[in-house]
Design goal:
By secondary structure, the chain is α/β, with parallel strands linked by helices. Helices cover 30% and strands 19% of the residues. The chain has helices spanning 37-47, 56-62, 72-77, 86-97, 102-113, 182-191, 210-217, 237-240, 243-246, 251-263, 283-294, 313-325, 342-345, 349-360, 439-444, and strands spanning 20-22, 53-55, 130-131, 134-135, 139-143, 146-149, 197-200, 230-235, 267-273, 298-305, 329-335, 371-376, 380-390, 393-403, 413-416. The protein is globular and about 55 Å long. The model is unreliable at 5-10 (pLDDT under 50).
Length: 445
Amino acid sequence: MQQTVKLQPAEAYQPPRFTVYQHRQIDKIEQLDKLPEHLRFQMKVVANVFPFRVNNFVIEELIDWDKVPNDPVFQLTFPQRGMLDDESYEQMADLLSREHTPEEVFNLATKIRQKLNPHPAGQMEKNVPEYEGERVDGIQHKYKETVLFFPSQGQYCHSYCTFCFRWAQFVGKATRFNNNDAELLHNYLAEHTEVTDLLMTGGDPMVMRTVKLRKYLEALKEPRFDHIRTIRIGTKSLTFWPFRYVTDPDAQELLALLKELVDAGKHVSIMAHVNHKQELRTEVTREAIKLIRKTGAQIRTQAPLLNNINVDADMWADMWKEQTQLGMIPYYMFIERDTGAKRYFEIPLHKTWETFREAYKQVSGVSRTVRGPSMSAGPGKVEVSGVTEVAGEKVFVLRFIQARNPDWVQRPFFAKFDENAHWLDDLKPAFGEEKFFWQDEYDAM
């Protein structure tokens, strides 16, 4: 039996008609007319390589057009010249500047994309499990207790983020990773009783209609899934289309589903991606937060530290404080993954730690639930715990927050300090060691 969660009157939040623009409609975005022609051309070039999708709510409510191109949400959603290396950019710019066919553009874009590490951290080689002797596309099982599921109907978003580490999901069938077999998901979870957490991810599962989301989640109330204690839903909808919870035609049904799962004893957590405090400024987002919390579900917030978007430690501190005030739980500061347009967004590891530390020391204990800065690398989630000097050697202090082998978790290890290191693969062991303690076991996996 579905339960209802009382909504504010619809007239209190006049929902705009959802309008989305992709790379072929970029010229129809009126606000871009104020930009110089060369900037608009650069965006078209990059948008033919990386996925581009932005909706009217983001354009009209979240971007300060007087601050463009430096506005953080503009940088977050509109493609920028620096996202491509010079050679790739010039190749695509040259093609678009002369007579060309869609097939030529697609073929060149595919060639460029293959150089950009579309599926990092062993996602396709090491994370995909087998069920009844066959590989299960659409499921990842990297950590013992957590399964990720990629529902086919949720493999796009209300708007795309320029930094997205799952950009390959949105550029063609050859690089897409998804599944629409709810029975297969349920059978896999029922067999793997070591799993306690299911993470619905994408894309964005909240683009799905509730009836489709229910198909995957409702069965988890059954006794055979008592071992599934936590249901997480990764989403950007809370700030990019908050009407999903407030005025969408099936908003009440969505909130009712969350409440049913909570009432059945599940810990339900909305994993909200919030990259800048500017995203939290609309009243409809604040109303969506209230309605979700009324269901008993929690909201955890996470985001990577990104050059050109959110490098200001004071902004992070203010954002964590505001999130806490609104009833959300600051959860992770990530390090930009080694994929896609990382060259434009990445920051040296020592600076990520400095930014995290400067922000962290400004907040009280209730906001110090946040962890990081963390790399979701091949062997696991590696936190940069600090930079210090040991026995006369300057080093990074590292630890696993999560790992392919649970025995690695919370064991500190050390890497030589390198001011140019941006990712785990750039680091070398400190103190004359040849390998990190986990290296041989990981290589053998």
